[in-house]
Amino acid sequence: MTHMIPGMATPQHSDLETAVNAWHEAVNSGDLDRCAEAVGDPVVVLGPKGAGPISPADFAGWVARSGIRLRPRSWHPISERLIVVEQDATWPQTPTPTRVATVFRASAGVVTAALRLPDLRSALELAFICREMAATEEPPTP
């Protein structure tokens, strides 16, 4: 299922939308090959059990172990490469949905960061900080 993002019709945003949709479809399918193909190498993750860069195989393994399913509820574009998606998360042992939010970064058609936070406000705050850090980064001097 593809989710349209209001206000995201420019070419820069279509790659982001495509990557995030493919990520959700892969995770929700439980297909480990699709999960690995939906992310960069490495992919930066953040969640209740840790944070940092992991390989696509490790990401697929996490999907398999957790059994998580994430249903997008609302989309909040931040920049050309960043978006926050509010989601209903379920797990095999907890079928009642829990509302969470994930900051996504994408590049070259794949998700390169998926930072899951407990609520939309926290995710938006982190996304805005990430955007400002990128905007104020000075190029290295030769």
Automatic annotation (TrEMBL):
Gene3D superfamilies: 3.10.450.50. InterPro entries: NTF2-like_dom_sf (IPR032710). This is SnoaL-like domain-containing protein. The lineage of its organism: Bacteria, Bacillati, Actinomycetota, Actinomycetes, Micrococcales.
